[in-house]
Amino acid sequence: MLLRETKGRRVFDFWDALLSRQERVYSLSLLVPLAVYNLALKAYDLASRPGKLGLVRTLKLMRSDVFFNLGYTLLWIGLFGAVGRRGPVHRAVVFLFHVTTMLVAIVRASAHEYFRETGTALDYDIVALWFPGAVIICRGA
Questions:
Q1: CA distances from 89 to 12, 13, 101 (A)
Q2: What is the pLDDT of residues 105-139, one digit of tens each?
Q3: Which end of the chain is flanked by fewer CB atoms within 10 Å, N or C?
Q4: DSSP run (H or E) holding 3
C-alpha cells in the first residue's frame, strides 16, 4: 500500500482510485449500520444464552459474523469500483446493492427471531422445509 501526503494528511492511493468520496460515504452509510445491526443481534443472541460464555468465547462465536460483514463490504466496494461512476450498469449495481442489503437484513432479523423462539439456529435444512419441492443437499455422514 503506497501512501502519499495530501494537504497534511495521509491517503491510501488505491482507496482514492477505487471510489470517489461521495461513493465512499454513500456505500458506507448503508454498510456500517448493517454491520452494526448484524453484530448487535449476534451479541444479543449470545448474551441471552444460559451460562456465562466469557469474552474469548463470545468473540470466537462472533468471528463468522465479523468476517461476513467484512466480505460483504469488500464485495460492494469492489463492485462500485469496477462498474464506473455513471451509466446503466452503475444504476443496476446501486439497485442490487439496496435490494441485497435489505434481503440480508430481513434474513438476519428472521434468523434472530427464530433463535429467540426455538433456541436453535436457522440453517439451510430448516429453510428448505418451508419451500415445497426444495432440494435438500446431503452433507455426508
A1: 26, 25, 18
A2: 998 898 888 888 888 878 877 777 777 665 555 55
A3: C
A4: strand 3-6
**HEC profile of 5-35:** EECCEEEEHHHHHHCCHHHHHHHHHHHHHHH
pTM of the model: 0.71
Contact between residue 18 and residue 28 where contact means Cβ atoms under 8 Å apart: no
- Burial profile 46-55: b = 16 or more Cβ within 10 angstroms, e = fewer: eeeeeeeeee
Give the Cα separation of 121 and 99 in Å (integer).
24
Task: Decide: 34 and 104 in contact? Cβ < 8 Å.
Answer: yes
Residues in the chain, how many? 141
The grid coordinates of residue 123 equal 440453517
In whole angstroms, what is the distance from residue 134 CA to residue 125 CA? 10
